[in-house]
């Protein structure tokens, strides 16, 4: 039986157009990088995904290697959609990616045509979907010619396996090359996805303005800097169960430096004056920039998700606040 949805769900979420495309993305998208794998609670995963859709999130961001185990996030997503949301497929934008290590041997990594074509087929089987709305090249690997990777994306669209394509983590020169190849093939790049947050701002020097100038949507991932832009580490201690406490996590203990914690404390004080938590201000700050199409959040619980939604209530910043935030970040 399908989940009974809130009929007013689309009134709760603002939507933004992807560059020059007419396609709309929710201001907040749900990423399944963490908390939707085979090691996670399947009941809570289902609860979070349904709650997100009920709140107006229509964009769900996957990759072939999300888990752990790799591939399990796609499997769990497909199971939940089949069980609860199958009649709502046309209301959803589902993206997946390929380009990082997924299987053993020389073809399970990097961005070759062989890897992308096989990965797309595998991801469709795992999710049980007929097509992806967006399929990304997950990274520029430094080896594969951009034209080879882009031709694979073009053919994935022409074969009906995806409606749109995107790129992630490409340096600016390769980003521009990818845009040109895709545009000439009349399969323009819909979205560019990069790590971007208050404390990681390198994209401001190239990737973000390039996407805007070229008419491509921009999606920010890791908006809370792996948890550093939350209240979790403000004491300087690493809480048990946090990402930094996990030996296999992307946030390592040595990244929780005094400098970063001090920056987070300064930002937290600004957020309190705005009536927001640090994490809420971090999301709002990204969304105050109209060049940012959507921000991908992760969540461990529905309550965390709701706290993120509250950031949408105030995405306006005074010039004084923006200057103070830059100073707190050392910009």
Features:
10 strands, TIM Barrel, eight-stranded parallel β-barrel, two-stranded antiparallel sheet, alpha/beta, 331 residues, 36% helix
H/E series: EEEHEHEHEHEHEHEHHEHH
- What is the SS-derived class? alpha/beta
Q: What's the CATH H-level superfamily name?
A: NADP-dependent oxidoreductase domain
Number of domains: 1
Summarize the structure.
The protein has 331 residues and is α/β, with parallel strands linked by helices. It is built from ten helices and ten strands. 36% of the residues lie in helices and 15% in strands.
Written account of the structure:
It is a single chain. This protein has 331 residues and is of the alpha/beta class. It has helices at residues 42-54, 72-85, 113-127, 146-158, 172-184, 207-213, 258-273, 278-287, 302-309, 319-328, and strands spanning 15-17, 24-26, 28-31, 59-61, 93-98, 132-137, 162-168, 189-195, 217-221, 294-297. The chain has an eight-stranded parallel beta barrel with strand order 3-4-5-6-7-8-9-10, surrounded by six helices. Strands 1-2 form a two-stranded antiparallel sheet. The protein is globular, with a radius of gyration of 19 Å.
């Amino acid at each position: 039986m399908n989940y009974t949805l809130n009929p007013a769900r689309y009134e709760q979420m603002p939507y933004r157009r992807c560059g020059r495309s007419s396609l709309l993305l929710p201001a907040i998208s749900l990423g399944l990088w963490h908390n939707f794998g085979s090691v996670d609670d399947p009941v809570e995963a289902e609860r979070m995904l349904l709650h997100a859709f009920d709140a107006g999130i229509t964009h769900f961001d996957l990759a072939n290697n999300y888990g752990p185990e790799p591939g399990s996030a796609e499997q769990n997503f497909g199971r939940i959609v089949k069980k609860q949301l199958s009649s709502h497929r046309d209301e959803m934008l589902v993206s997946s990616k390929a380009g990082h290590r997924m299987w053993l041997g020389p073809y399970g990594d990097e961005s070759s045509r062989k890897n992308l074509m096989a990965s797309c087929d595998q991801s469709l089987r795992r999710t049980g979907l007929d097509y992806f709305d967006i399929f990304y090249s997950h990274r520029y690997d430094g080896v594969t010619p951009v034209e080879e990777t882009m031709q694979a994306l073009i053919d994935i669209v022409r074969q009906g396996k995806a409606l749109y394509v995107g790129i992630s983590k490409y340096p600016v020169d390769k980003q521009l090359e990818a845009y040109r190849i895709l545009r000439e093939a009349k399969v323009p790049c819909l979205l560019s996805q990069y790590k971007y947050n208050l404390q990681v701002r390198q994209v401001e020097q190239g990737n973000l303005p390039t996407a805007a100038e070229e008419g491509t949507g921009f999606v920010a991932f890791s908006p809370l800097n792996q948890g550093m832009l939350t209240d979790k580490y403000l004491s300087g201690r690493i809480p048990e169960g946090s990402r930094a406490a996990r030996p296999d996590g992307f946030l390592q203990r040595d990244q929780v430096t005094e400098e970063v914690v001090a920056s987070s404390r300064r930002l937290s004080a600004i957020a309190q004056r705005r009536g927001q938590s640090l994490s809420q201000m971090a999301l709002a700050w990204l969304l105050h920039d109209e060049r940012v199409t959507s921000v991908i959040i992760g969540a461990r619980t529905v309550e965390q998700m709701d706290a993120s939604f509250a950031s949408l209530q105030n995405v306006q910043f005074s010039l004084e606040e923006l200057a103070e935030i830059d100073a707190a970040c050392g910009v």
